[in-house]
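Hello Y.,

Per our agreement to keep a running log of every chain we model this quarter, I'm adding this entry. I've kept the format consistent with earlier entries: sequence first, then predicted structure.
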Amino acid sequence: MLCIGPSLRAVCGCISAVLIGGLASLMTFPAAAENAILAQTQNTPPASNCRKLSVGGADGWEPITYIRDDGQQTGLAIDILQDYANRHDLKLDLNLDIPWTRAIQMLSKGELDVIAGAYFTHERDQVHFYSAPFANDDIMVFQRNDNRFPVVELSDLIGYDGARPQGGSYGDYIDRFAEQRLNMIFSPTGNRIFDVLMNGRVDYVMLGRFDGLTNIYRDNLIDDIIVVEPPIDSNKVHFMFSRKSPCMGHVRNLNILIEQLAEDGTLDQWTENHLLDVSEGAS
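Predicted structure for the entry above:
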């Protein structure tokens, strides 16, 4: 269901509750994947040569990473990295203003140390190096209120025109199905992706739940756009490190910190803070 309350603060409380509910599953990350991450970290070089983390990420992926109107780069992923950096005497070099596709290329070359938030794909896993997950993100279909059609699974989108953000992945399952069977454009409009829905160019937009809902409330589209339940899929969100980075040796301790922050409720609180921050900026 779409959470609608008497104020943006109430709405964000609803959204936060959905995300916080998913955080409990972080501690039940599939054993095979967890063991693979731990095995990789045991073989990583020492992090003694790492004194600065150069960080890329997606602008406008609230509450994971985003840039405020005043230019501050922030989000749940940045909070985690800043907390870790403070504990280990590291400096953060934030670069959320670098476009996503270019940031991924820079990560591959070792020009960035880490992407602050990415879904897992097997293709990326062959090139980059994942941390344990720190959040969950439902993948949703958004439609115009005056052009609804039922969607329960991906096959229900066959025959319709859709849009998704340029350069991003929604995991192996959705990416493969979309490439083979769906008619989707990759929109470069970022936070304005709903423009192509409102002007009738596409029938739906596929976005992460929180990203999409934030855009709806920020752009006053509550009466115009709906989110279709249930989710098409749900992806865990990880940090993605460059295999050429001297900072890979920090991943094991970063994983421990993520677990601690999830267990003591800190991730819950930081998430809600960012959702409220975004809502107040939109009001």
